[in-house]
Amino acid sequence: MTDASASSPSADAADTEITAIEDRMSVTAHALELEDGPLVYTAHAGTTVLREEKPGEKKTGNGTPGEGYEQASAYAEVFSVSYIASGRGQQRPVVFAFNGGPGASTVWLHLGLFGPRRVDSGDAGALTPQPAGLLENRETLLREADLVMVDAMTTGFSRPAPGTAPDRLHGFAEDRDLIAAFVVDWLTRHERWLSPLYLAGESYGTTRAAAVAARLTDRYYVVPRGIALISPVLDFGTVFFTPGNDAPFLHYLPTYAAIAHAHGKHEGRMLQDVVDEAEAFAEQEYPQLLAQGLRLGAEERRAAAETIASLIGVSPDWVERVDLRVEHQAFLAELLRDQGLVTGRIDGRFTAPAGDPISKEMETDPSIDQLAPAYTAAINHYLRGELEFSSDVVYEIMSARVHPWSYKDFENRSVEVATDLSRVLRKSPTTRLFVAHGYHDAATPFHASEHVLAHLDVPRETYEQRIQVEDYEAGHMMYCHEPSRLALSEDLARFVRGEG
């Protein structure tokens, strides 16, 4: 019995429609006035259709069945904005950048740090009234390299191709393979195979960057010159609070201390001194205290609670009640409870009135709540008004539609990309890492990242000579803090130039 629908005109028409979808791209010309003269560039904003060869059956010369491939079919429409400087040649570095989530578009790095235009968001305690506008970004990384801002699947305007199930592209491996395929496709279309390649990610985007770097290296023999990790998370076991796992309590403590300092809990002390003291405690005494569990005596327990409380700006009684183990959302609700405020997770310098004064944890994140509207208005205006690209779907700034996100490759173990990162560094003696931490970032704590980097499976010389780590006095998106934005922009420029 045959399937009549497979050869029916309607099925053929549907297949043709799915295969025939094409790129939609707007190309506009721009110039950015800099001190040393104008930087002239083109912006390519739009969706790129990615196609794949599907395994099929074909007949060999003698008419017997054999393995083959059907015609390549579309499976994804990936939205990106590429900035290409005019007259700079085809061997100029190219930086591919993406944010994380999973579920976050790349609007944050795009309009906060990298692009030639940036959002006028303001900062903690000094927000720009909404809707915020756009400013010239004279510190843009476009001065040093061409830029490709990529939105992961179901973020921004990226969508599955018609006929492709969305959940097929929502997962660690699926996302990794999609972005790697996009990079290879872009290099081919733009004839940039001789350009030094850089990957830059923020938050889960750093997980993605490490995984994509390994995929490019292992599958395509495409080796990144550099990987920039901004607010990284490289091993989820260091930051996810799960029963029996004390690691996050240790790694978050220095961040709590830094946030307490930002809110006046360490009056008269320098931030670096507070962080150094908290890191020393987290690495030396704290692990031994937690390891004792119920064996810890009452006097030792009280002394430990007092030490922790003095470091992170809360009461010793509260620290005892949580068994010396301070979970991050509980801390953010507790720190300024006496003032009726909750503290930001993405950036602990932000605050907002508490909806529930006795809540055990923060109900919402003031830093995202206060920054996201500026980025939303800016990207929607910028894409349509200046880059002349529009779509009939919503530009997804932050989307829950990517969930559930599949981590099936990590069944019964922690999600981690330290092994991927180590393998890339071992395979490629020229690849370098740049790592940026925000001291007030309670989403991806800097001490957890430091720990993972120090335990990469690479020679000591690689760790000392090819990994650059910088810390900034702000949060997860440290570029909303103007001094940090300027410092980070210069550090990234030096990294791409091969300095430092």
List the defining traits of the structure above:
two-stranded antiparallel sheet, disordered N terminus, 18 strands, 37% helix, 2 domains, 10-stranded mixed beta sheet, 500 residues, Rossmann fold, alpha/beta
Short description:
Helix content is about 35%, strand content about 20%.
Describe, in plain words, how this protein is organized in 3D:
This protein has helices spanning 9-20, 107-114, 172-189, 204-220, 247-262, 271-283, 285-292, 298-312, 316-321, 328-334, 366-386, 418-427, 446-454, 460-466, 482-497, and strands at 24-34, 37-52, 55-59, 65-69, 73-85, 94-98, 117-119, 122-123, 126-127, 134-136, 146-150, 159-160, 197-203, 226-232, 341-343, 351-353, 432-438, 467-472. By secondary structure, the chain is of the alpha/beta class. It folds into 2 domains: 24-54 and 72-237 and 371-497, 3-Layer(aba) Sandwich (Rossmann fold); 245-366, no CATH class. Strands 1, 2, 5, 6, 11, 12, 13, 14, 17 and 18 form a 10-stranded mixed beta sheet that branches. The chain is globular. The protein starts with 8 loop residues before the first helix and ends with a helix.
